[in-house]
């Protein structure tokens, strides 16, 4: 799975397979890395993910934010002195601007990919923490709608 099939088809397969797997066993899905795909897979019973997408994208200048993906190499960030994500409290977002990180990428400085990779890993760790909290609080579907509304804005 997660190797090119349509997302709707993948979600149906995951739903069918997780329904027959023992609940006490960990359910692993390889190659799913977009936030909306992770969320739908968790809703369908998946517990564990493994994907290069967050770090590969970050190393090439695309990061995930609470408002969707951002490609830091774009000229629009040349004089943008905001953090990558205003709602993130990671080290990168607390200490560096979009303009500076863009400069690092364009200058070929290794710090640029390191900062965006740190941010992306932090973003996904926070995503999973929020999903766990929503499951425990029994409001996962409401949380999903709220998250996706903001993420797609």
From TrEMBL:
Documented EC number(s): 2.4.2.-
One GO BP annotation of this record: tRNA queuosine(34) biosynthetic process
Alphabetical keyword list: Glycosyltransferase, Transferase, tRNA processing
GO CC terms, sorted: cytosol
Annotated InterPro entries: ArchSynthase1/Queuine_TRR, TGT-like_sf, tRNA_ribo_trans-like
UniProt keyword annotation of tRNA processing present: yes
tRNA-guanine(15) transglycosylase-like domain segment(s): 1-152
Alphabetized Gene3D superfamilies for the sequence: Queuine tRNA-ribosyltransferase-like (3.20.20.105)
Family matches, as SUPFAM superfamilies: tRNA-guanine transglycosylase (SSF51713)
GO molecular function: glycosyltransferase activity
PANTHER family, per database record: QUEUINE TRNA-RIBOSYLTRANSFERASE (PTHR46499)
Protein name, per record: tRNA-guanine transglycosylase
